[in-house]
Specification:
By secondary structure, the protein is α+β, with helices and mostly antiparallel strands. The strands form four sheets. Strands 11-10-7-8-9-12-16-14 form an eight-stranded antiparallel beta sheet. Strands 3-6-4-5 form a four-stranded antiparallel beta sheet, sandwiched between helices. Strand 8 and strand 9 form a beta hairpin. Helix 3 packs antiparallel against helix 4. It starts with a helix and ends in a 17-residue tail after the last strand. 41% of the residues are buried.
Length: 401
């Protein structure tokens, strides 16, 4: 969705766009002027396309691993980009990231990075543990484990998913997940939106089904969040760029999970715009074109602004029912598709890439929010090729204060 918005805004400025993607038929393909199917992590291939197309610049939003690929290709070709390859590598590799956190007093869980599981190296880490690939995204391969048997299985999976064959094992920090979206301007990290990331209720997985604004946090905690985010920008030498920090809090302390010098994915750019008035995709385009963004954080449009994501049971997606009417009637203010007709869902809900679409709810009272939410959940359907409703209605609970 954000890549489609990126293309739309580029074309509004009269800029011809060439889309590169690993899929043969990505949703953004019809919006671009031309398309190349390519492994987007293959720097040589990206450079070849850029030369062939006489590209003035490469650009992406949201994806942390693609951020590195764009930085590598741009640096090799002498094209403009808001972050150099060295910094892009530091903010997209979880091992380098955690090392920098530790060196700069940024609160994070104790950890070890390994290519092969060595239980002696993690003997002083306390269960439960979290296992994750060092360079994956969309929560792929992230697991919570309770004992050594689960650890071995999760570690093997994480190493398989990791492109460089390494996995992180770290202590579990119990608390709510908070997502902090910022824009760094001349080294100052401006907080645009602080939201809760609510997860599917599963003991071992961390798949987001909702982004909720405003965040559950005291003013003292919000000040600590701002301080830590500025420390991160300083530690990584960030001057002008978007920034997303994911952290956990128990209400008093925070522990940083990870961050990247990028915009948030899926519906996040819309949540930020509704909450602060700042268009982060426009900001990325301006930076790339050498235009210095002027960040002015405004007031939120509504008291409650929530992105909900629709997941599906097993089957082949055919069509939706009721979503257009929900938009017309004001139950939701945004609805964006993530998967095309014909996409096959396993029903496993293993990562955030298993979403079908996202919607935005806005309301000024909790009662009005839940009224809209109930009406929406009971009136919409996602139909498979057999005409069955495959939407996981159970994964969309009402909002609690």
């Amino acid at each position: 969705m954000p890549q489609i918005e990126l293309i739309r805004q580029l074309k509004e400025r009269g800029i011809e766009t060439v889309l590169a993607d690993g899929s043969p038929a990505p949703l953004a393909k019809p919006f671009a002027d031309r398309f190349h199917q390519v492994n987007i992590f293959d720097t040589d291939a990206l450079c070849a396309i850029a030369v062939e197309e006489k590209a003035d610049f490469l650009i992406t939003v949201c994806a942390d691993q693609v951020l590195l690929a764009v930085a590598q290709a741009s640096e090799r070709l002498g094209l403009p980009w808001y972050i150099d390859e060295r910094t892009a590598r530091m903010v997209s590799d979880k091992e380098l990231m955690k090392k920098t956190f530790a060196e700069n007093g940024i609160p994070t869980s104790r950890y070890e990075v390994m290519a092969e599981l060595d239980t002696e190296r993690i003997a002083d880490l306390r269960y439960p543990l979290i296992v994750k690939p060092v360079d994956a995204y969309s929560s792929r391969g992230v697991r919570k484990v309770l004992d050594e048997a689960e650890l071995r299985a999760a570690f093997a999976d994480a190493v398989r998913i990791s492109r460089n064959g390494n996995a992180i094992v770290e202590e579990f920090f119990r608390g709510e997940e908070i997502s902090v979206d910022l824009f760094v301007e001349d080294g100052k990290a401006h907080v645009l939106c602080v939201s809760n990331s609510e997860k599917v209720k599963a003991e071992d997985r961390f798949v987001i089904f909702r982004g909720r604004y405003p965040v559950h946090a005291s003013e003292a905690l919000l000040e600590e969040i701002r301080t830590v985010c500025q420390k991160i920008a300083d530690a990584f030498g960030l001057r002008n760029c978007p920034m997303l920090v994911q952290m956990l809090t128990d209400g008093e302390r925070i522990s940083v999970l990870e961050f990247c010098a990028r915009t948030g994915g899926a519906m996040k750019w819309l949540l930020i715009k509704h909450a602060s008035g700042v268009d982060v995709i426009k900001g990325v385009i301006d930076l790339t074109l050498g235009i210095k963004p002027s960040i002015r954080v405004g007031q939120p449009e509504s008291r409650y602004i929530v992105n909900d994501f629709v997941y599906c049971g097993a089957g082949v997606f055919d069509r939706t029912e009721g979503f257009d009417e929900a938009l017309r009637s004001g139950l939701i203010t945004d609805c964006r598709m993530l998967r095309p007709k014909g996409h096959r869902f396993s029903g496993d809900v293993a990562s955030s890439s298993d979403r079908l679409l996202g919607v935005t709810f806005q309301a000024d009272t909790l009662e009005d929010f839940n009224r809209k939410h109930r009406a929406f959940v009971t009136s919409v359907k996602v139909l498979d090729t057999e005409g069955n409703d495959m939407m996981r209605h159970d994964l969309l609970p009402e909002l609690e204060e």
